Amino acid sequence: MSDYRPPLQDMEFVLGELAGLPDLAALPGYEEVTAELAASVLEEAGKIAAEVVAPLNRNGDLVGARLENGEVVTAPGWDGAYRALRDGGWIGVSSDPAYGGMGLPGAVGAAVQEMWHAANMAFALCPMLSQSAVKALSACGSQAQKQKYLSRLVSGEWAGTMNLTEVVAGSDLGAIRTKAVRSGDHYLISGQKIFITYGDHRLTDNIIHMVLARTPEAPAGVKGISLFIVPKFLVNEDGSLGARNDLKALSLEHKLGIHASPTAVMSYGDNGGAIGYLVGEENRGLEYMFVMMNSARLNVGLEGLGIADRAYQKALAYARERVQGKPPGGTSSSTIVDHPDVRRMLMTMKARIEAMRALAYVAAAALDRAAHDPDAATRDQALRYAELLNPIVKGCCTEAGVEVASEGVQIHGGMGFIEETGAAQYYRDARITTIYEGTTAIQANDLVGRKLLRDKGETARAALAEAARTVETLAAGGDETLKAIAASLGKGVMAAHDAVDWLFAAAAEDARLPGAASVPLLRLFGVVLGGHQMARAALAARRHLDAGEGDARFYDAKIKTAHFYADSILPQSAGLLAAVTSGARTVMSLDHDQL
After folding, report:
1. Whole-angstrom Cα distance, residue 393 to residue 385?
2. Residue 199: is its pLDDT beyond 90?
3. Whole-angstrom Cα distance, residue 114 to residue 268?
4. Which one of 437, 458, 480, 509 is the catalytic residue?
5. Residue 46: which of 97, 84, 96, 78 has the closest Cα?
6. Sign of CA pseudo-dihedral 130, 132, 138, 140
7. Theoretical Cys-Cys bridge with 285: which of 71, 225, 278, 476, CB 3.0 to 4.6 Å?
8. Cα 112 vs. chain centroid, distance in angstroms?
9. Residue 326: predicted pLDDT
């Protein structure tokens, strides 16, 4: 048994009150999704997370994964935990029922994903990548490819990976050198990929590698990249497994954290060429891979959320039991939870986690609407909103995850720096999330270049207008706490508006300025849009309290946490605005030899 307790009450609140689960249930394909069904799914997933997956986390960190005779051996208990997910259909929570999935909304799937990552992030990376492979094949694969691969990926019988990075091609995918030469109805793939998460293992009968490569005639740069399905074992026409393909894991990386996740250097084509099958058309691989990457980016944001919540739970438990000194105004020694600065750290952790959870689930719900709403205009609006939120969720939730895990170490004091207490592992594990699937700067550049400048800020301004309407609703009532939240959120909304206005003027003045300001601008939007969700949560909690229904202490805590966010976190928007509008001008002021 572990000390992880899935935050089911808050998850159900966010799904019902903020992500709009009742509205999602009215969409075609989701008619059977009731609040009761969602609660039942989350409860069962929570049991598996707490009782099966989480207890493996510590030993997995100590033992890690290893390479034996060219095969990866995962940490003890991994096989059984994976079987629990596979046998329960958990890998296909939000996948198409036509291929064996549960067909639940992605918002519900996001809550399940959060629990897997909180319980054991190193373990959860494997099913997460399979889900992303399912997304890519569903959107871009041929009908024959869907029939051959999807049902087994959805069921978890097979696993999926993402193969982008090479030694010479990190974030610059245009530098990819892996080759793909046509040979009849397939291609022969040769080259090496690095940083391939779960590049090899024995958890599944087969591994379906999604590999970016370049054909001999392809144009240079990103326009010449194609996407290929490269299975570990070839698949016969009847679906049975054939010969081992020409690929292998050469080595495993020695990492700061997630030790139990095998991060492999993969070699393709050492003996003539690994057989691969083209997805879609040649030279459109990056476009197809972005379907997989955008799914993974949302899920990596959920990793940041999950690891933050696990770190918070551990820090809170420690603070409640650790006796140390007299707090101000106290007459005797007390547990450190009574010390004001420890309480400040715990409140900051709690508020940031609740804002992250709301923002991530709302983003997932927007994707549900974009895929299922019968009205084309509504689908388009939902998609643009989801695309705006995607880099914010990925960038801000992961940065917050690292910072919350760091606060967890701080609350433990010197014991937090000792590995045996476990707080340090969350900090080490969280650190990769700001790098995975595009660094924070890449997310920020995506927000600035593709989501703000490209559509002239239309979608961002619409999101801010919605937040402004919430400010008006908060201010219109007689509740003084809600009015205080309204005042702070209103200032944040104006700061975000000012930042967008500055961006367009700066882009016309100097092409470097938007890039220099992008990360503070990303953080600004994360703070403000997170604050908007916290304000909505406070409104919903007040409605329940006024109606005399539900758990009064839970709703009271919701309002107080939103108030703390408004008083202690939303004011950061003023400083972030200054970093955007003034700080960007000094970023490049030194010559590189002065650095």
Report:
1. 12
2. yes
3. 33
4. 437
5. 84
6. negative
7. 225
8. 12
9. 87
In the chain, the N- to C-terminal Cα span, in Å, equals 50
Per-residue confidence (pLDDT) for residue 178, from 0 to 100 = 97
> What span, in angstroms and rounded, lies between the C-alpha atoms of 333 and 340?
14
Q: Is the pLDDT of residue 71 over 90?
A: yes
The label of the residue with tokens 């969280």 reads 430
Please, where are the H alpha helices in 373-479? Answer: 376-412, 423-430, 440-446, 458-476
Residue 458 a catalytic site member: no
Helix pair 480-509, 458-476: axis angle to 10 deg:
160
**Each residue's pLDDT tens digit, 263-301:** 999 999 999 999 999 999 999 999 998 899 899 999 999
How far, in Å, CA of 208 to CA of 271, rounded?
A: 19
The answer to whether 229 and 242 have CB atoms below 8 angstroms apart is no
Cα 576 off chain centre by = 23
pLDDT-derived band of residue 173, with 50, 70 and 90 as boundaries? confident
Q: At what angle do helices 340-372 and 285-321 cross, to 10 degrees?
A: 150
Please report which helix (H) or strand (E) contains residue 211, including its range.
Answer: strand 206-213
pLDDT, position 2 = 57
Q: In the numeric block, which tokens belong to residue 537? A: 């949560």
Residue 174 confidence (pLDDT): 84
Sort strands 226-231 and 274-278 into parallel, antiparallel or unpaired.
antiparallel
User: Which residue in this structure is represented by tokens 């995850």?
Assistant: 401
Indicate if the pLDDT at residue 323 is higher than 90.
yes
476 confidence band (pLDDT: 50, 70, 90) = very high
Amino acid residing at 191: G
**Residue 504 neighbours by CB distance under 10 Å:** 14
How do 206-213 and 158-163 pair as beta strands? parallel
For 355, 461, 520, 581, the CA distances from 501, given in Å and listed in that order, are: 25, 10, 15, 10
Neighbour-count burial of 415, counting CB atoms closer than 10 A to its CB (0-12 exposed, 13-18 middle, 19+ buried): middle
The pLDDT value recorded for residue 356 is: 98
Residue 206: how many CB atoms within 10 A of its CB?
Answer: 18
CA atoms lying within 13 Å on the CB side of residue 128: 30
Query: 195 is written with which tokens?
Result: 């940083």
Q: Would the pLDDT of 1 be above 50?
A: no
3-state SS, residue 432: helix
What is the distance between the alpha carbons of residues 78 and 306, in angstroms, rounded to a whole number?
19
Read off the pLDDT of residues 225-278 as tens digits, 9 standing for 90 and up: 999 999 999 999 999 999 999 999 999 999 999 999 999 999 999 999 999 999
DSSP 8-state secondary structure symbol assigned to residue 322: -
The total of other beta-carbon atoms located within 10 Å of residue 455's CB is 15
User: How much is the pTM?
Assistant: 0.97
Q: How far is it, in rounded angstroms, from Cα 476 to Cα 410?
A: 40
Residue 127: Cβ-neighbour burial (10 angstroms; 0-12, 13-18, 19+): buried
Average pLDDT value for the chain: 96
For residue 209, the tally of other CB atoms under 10 A from its CB is 26
In angstroms, the CA 534 to CA 296 distance is 25
